[in-house]
Amino acid sequence: MMGIANMQPRQLATQLLNFALVLSTAFMLWKGISVVSDSPSPIVVVLSGSMEPAFQRGDLLFLWNRGMDTQLGEVVVYNVKGKDIPIVHRVVRRFGGGKSPLRLLTKGDNNLADDTELYAAGQTHLNRKEDVIGSVVGFIPFVGYVTILLSEYPWLKQAMLGIMGLMVVLQRE
């Protein structure tokens, strides 16, 4: 096994450039999907059990936000002003539409009450164009659990990044 000290500068530079290429490719893919889906976050992970049994914690959701006329019963992902984590809930009421802005009231399938307590102060409904980042069009069960583990155990994220970095540097061509 070749150590970092034994690597030629050219080999080390090649490995680091390969690592940068992988990261930039992933970033470009993410941005491309964002443009196509018209969503700033086209893929999200379910973080709580509020949508059970429809979606479980750790499910990976795919969002679409282009040309959507949100209907009752549709599952949407929205951001609340002042909070960083998007919320995945179902539309239970629609207000307006057409010439007036479409406003929505949402609720988690596993919750007793609607989401008015989750909205920003003084907000009683979601504005479809401003608050909703996309409608769920598909999902893969439990694949997002890795994301949950990485957010709940920060040391795990650092360990994985360290291992990936070592693998790139120590990899032989």
UniProtKB/TrEMBL annotation:
The keyword Transport does not apply. CDD domains: S26_SPase_I. Its EC number is 3.4.21.89. InterPro entries: LexA/Signal_pep-like_sf, Pept_S26A_signal_pept_1_Ser-AS, Peptidase_S26, Peptidase_S26B. The chain crosses the membrane at residues 132-150. The keyword Metal-binding does not apply. Keywords: Endoplasmic reticulum, Hydrolase, Membrane, Protease, Signal-anchor, Transmembrane, Transmembrane helix. PROSITE patterns: SPASE_I_1 (PS00501). GO terms for molecular function: serine-type endopeptidase activity; signal peptidase activity. It is found in: Endoplasmic reticulum membrane. Component of the signal peptidase complex (SPC) composed of a catalytic subunit SEC11 and three accessory subunits SPC1, SPC2 and SPC3. The complex induces a local thinning of the ER membrane which is used to measure the length of the signal peptide (SP) h-region of protein substrates. This ensures the selectivity of the complex towards h-regions shorter than 18-20 amino acids. SPC associates with the translocon complex. Belongs to the peptidase S26B family. This is Signal peptidase complex catalytic subunit SEC11. It comes from Didymosphaeria variabile.
